[in-house]
TrEMBL record:
<keyword id="KW-0464">Manganese</keyword>
<comment type="function">
    <text>DNA polymerase III is a complex, multichain enzyme responsible for most of the replicative synthesis in bacteria. The epsilon subunit contain the editing function and is a proofreading 3'-5' exonuclease.</text>
</comment>
<feature type="binding site">
    <location>
        <position position="159"/>
    </location>
    <ligand>
        <name>substrate</name>
    </ligand>
</feature>
<protein>
    <recommendedName>
        <fullName>DNA polymerase III subunit epsilon</fullName>
        <ecNumber>2.7.7.7</ecNumber>
    </recommendedName>
</protein>
<keyword id="KW-0239">DNA-directed DNA polymerase</keyword>
<feature type="binding site">
    <location>
        <position position="7"/>
    </location>
    <ligand>
        <name>a divalent metal cation</name>
    </ligand>
</feature>
<keyword id="KW-0548">Nucleotidyltransferase</keyword>
<keyword id="KW-0479">Metal-binding</keyword>
<dbReference type="InterPro" id="IPR013520">
    <property type="entry name" value="Ribonucl_H"/>
</dbReference>
<dbReference type="InterPro" id="IPR012337">
    <property type="entry name" value="RNaseH-like_sf"/>
</dbReference>
<dbReference type="GO" id="GO:0005829">
    <property type="term" value="C:cytosol"/>
</dbReference>
<feature type="binding site">
    <location>
        <position position="9"/>
    </location>
    <ligand>
        <name>substrate</name>
    </ligand>
</feature>
<dbReference type="Pfam" id="PF00929">
    <property type="entry name" value="RNase_T"/>
</dbReference>
<feature type="binding site">
    <location>
        <position position="159"/>
    </location>
    <ligand>
        <name>a divalent metal cation</name>
    </ligand>
</feature>
<dbReference type="InterPro" id="IPR036397">
    <property type="entry name" value="RNaseH_sf"/>
</dbReference>
<keyword id="KW-0378">Hydrolase</keyword>
<keyword id="KW-0235">DNA replication</keyword>
Length: 238
């Protein structure tokens, strides 16, 4: 699966009050590595940003005066994301704005992103991994030791690059998994994930090693042992 890490900046919120996208930033991941390919554009929204939004991203109407409108970049943007899994933090926000932009220019066949992309919401993933904790992008950077020291203002491309590092750290491995027949519980998993180390974007692609027949047989036996211990099917079997 090809992954596109995506972020947008807007004139404000919510989208149904006529707010528009002013910046789109995307970076591409393949084999858990940044490819160097990206899509980045500032957009003329034909309206001013709300003061609160302007404080967040600092993109002024004067700066956007000579920038293209969404209709001028829509095809290039669609070609870049089509068929990919979009990795977005708080995906409902960005997806809603993107679908609205396609709707406003009459491209009805592109107004439902899930028809041509998968969507992975890193905010929902973070909530599952760290329930009850702060899971905004800044908090995740601190938790996973991702450098965001250059992030004085929000910017879509910069935030997409930071989110790519966070996503790789969040999904870069698993914590200690202990299987032991003499434990009260059949397995124990450390849910903190705080010991994960971010994976370098310059590392070579991972080699895929398939399980042997003997390993698959041992795996099935382990699942049988777990099922017997819990008096029901193991999670893997569900």
């Amino acid at each position: 699966m090809r992954y596109i890490v995506l972020d947008t900046e807007t004139t404000g919120m919510p989208v149904h009050e006529g707010h528009r996208i002013v910046e789109i930033g995307c970076v591409e991941l393949e084999d858990r590595t940044l490819t160097g390919r990206h899509f980045h554009v500032y957009l003329q929204p034909d309206r001013d940003s709300d003061p609160e939004a302007l404080r967040v991203h600092g993109i002024t109407s004067e700066f956007l005066q000579d920038k293209p409108r969404f209709a001028e970049v829509a095809d290039d943007f669609y070609q870049f994301i089509q068929g990919a899994c979009l990795v977005i933090h708080n995906a409902a926000f960005d997806v809603g704005f993107i679908e609205n932009e396609f709707r406003l220019i009459g491209q009805q066949d592109r107004t439902r992103i899930t028809d041509y992309c998968e969507v992975l919401d890193t905010l929902e993933l973070a909530k599952q991994l760290h329930p009850g904790q702060r899971n905004n992008l800044d908090a995740l950077c601190r938790r996973y030791d991702v450098d965001n020291s250059n992030r004085e203002l929000h910017g879509a491309l910069l935030d997409a690059q930071i989110l790519a590092d966070v996503y790789l750290a969040m999904t870069g491995g698993q914590t200690d998994l202990m299987l032991a027949s003499d434990e009260p519980e059949p397995y124990a998993v450390d849910q903190s994930l705080t010991a994960l180390t971010p994976i370098s974007r310059d590392r070579p692609a991972l080699k895929i090693i398939r399980a042997t027949a003997a390993e698959l047989e041992a795996h099935e036996q382990r699942l049988a042992d777990i099922s017997k211990a819990v008096k029901g099917p193991a999670l893997w079997q569900q």
